[in-house]
Design goal:
Helix content is about 30%, strand content about 15%. By secondary structure, the chain is of the alpha/beta class. Strands 10-11-12-13-14 form a five-stranded parallel sheet, with helices on one face. A three-stranded mixed sheet has the order 5-9-8. Strands 1-3 form a two-stranded antiparallel ribbon. The chain is globular.
Length: about 350
């Protein structure tokens, strides 16, 4: 009897993926272990491929009251992310779909076509009060499947059309496709973009973020956004203690050279299932540094893999976290990078027009 590894079927090859296993999420009452019973025809092992299914969106805007977030609303064009970043703090959200935060998160995706119309309806509501919408705070809106599904394009078209402020976070190159919409928004003070750069080491990036653009390509995205007049913030996120923290200043300098005007950083976050997935990856990909990395992580998290307390979850605590914060502050001051970009304009917003609405004379 040939058993699968934590939900990965026998005969399936996992290549260019971040997760090494596919254990059930925390809401599942039992775990299932697939196995070959000997009746299958022998065939060549096949790669685990990405599957995308459509979901009819009933709502578009998600609100939060987290005191340590700089936004109170967001839109998620996709559930799951093919970039497959091993460390992704959003992985546990897949458990709400009865899917694994492991391999399922990066191979069984959900697209939400039609969400643009839903968003327009919500923006027309009489009680709506305008404030910047953040996109990319959970999963990347410009991940590879956006090339086919164009859900993010729908959302940007709605926001651009009604003068609504927008903040995008991405490490995807597909954002360049939408310059025709984004550049005019930036010119009107309606847009800023954060580009995540975790490391400048192409080999480490390919192992840790297997289907995301390589570091040099992300710097090129910053360069092109900046040339198009879009204010760009480089996000050194996450800073991985003992693995990438030594690159902090180098990343900031490279991003500044590419045209970034702002910067931020976030300490590695390992909530819920992410902790086990990360340790599993670390032991295989970086066995010589695994113990050191986890020791540093726990040093910054009060002796635990993660501390979800507001005010601590983004930056950690203790001597190591304070050292990173000090290094970051000195580097951004030296490079002239802003830690906070100017506020986006909210005064240009006009509710999206319905088909057949009479045009205003003024």
């Amino acid at each position: 009897m040939e058993h699968g590894r934590d939900g990965i079927l026998p005969g399936k090859r996992v290549r260019a993926r971040g997760a090494l296993s596919n254990a059930p999420g925390r809401f599942e009452g039992r775990g299932l272990v697939p196995f070959a019973d000997g009746w299958e025809m022998a065939e060549e092992a096949r790669l685990v491929r990405t599957e995308v299914r459509a979901e009819r969106a009933r709502s578009a805007i998600s609100y939060n009251r987290s005191p340590d977030l700089p936004f109170d609303r967001s839109v998620n064009p996709y559930r799951g992310c093919e970039h497959g970043c091993t460390y992704c703090f959003a992985r546990p959200t897949h458990a709400y779909l009865n899917l694994s935060p492991g391999l399922d998160f990066e191979t069984r995706l959900v697209a939400r076509p039609g969400i643009g119309a839903v968003l327009a309806r919500e923006l027309r509501a009489k009680g709506y009060r305008v404030a910047p919408i953040a996109i990319g705070t959970n999963t990347d809106p410009y991940q590879p499947c956006e090339a086919e599904w164009r859900v993010m394009r729908e959302v940007v078209e709605v926001l651009a059309g009604c003068g609504h402020p927008l903040a995008i976070t991405t490490k995807g190159t597909l954002i360049e496709r939408d310059f025709d919409l984004l550049a005019p928004m930036a010119e009107r003070g309606l847009l800023r973009v954060g580009v995540s750069v975790t490391t400048l080491d192409a080999g480490l990036s390919r192992r840790m973020e297997p289907r995301a653009a390589l570091p040099a390509r992300r710097l090129e995205v910053i360069r092109r956004l900046s040339a198009a007049g879009v204010p760009v913030r480089v996000m050194v996120a996450p800073v991985v203690p003992g693995l990438t923290d030594h690159e902090l200043e180098g990343i900031l300098e490279a991003a500044r050279g590419a045209g970034a005007v702002g910067a931020s950083w976030i300490m590695l976050r390992l909530p819920l299932e992410v902790a086990g997935l990360w340790r599993e990856w670390l032991e295989q990909a970086e066995p010589g540094r695994a113990a050191k990395v986890m020791a540093r992580v726990r040093e910054a998290r009060g002796g635990k893999d993660y501390d979800a307390e507001w005010g601590k979850r983004m930056r950690g605590e203790g001597l190591f976290a304070e050292l990173i914060a000090t290094r970051f502050a000195k580097a951004v001051a030296r490079l002239g990078l802003a830690e906070a970009l100017p506020a986006l304009r909210c005064d240009l917003f006009r509710p999206p027009a319905r088909a057949g609405d009479q045009l205003s004379l003024f």
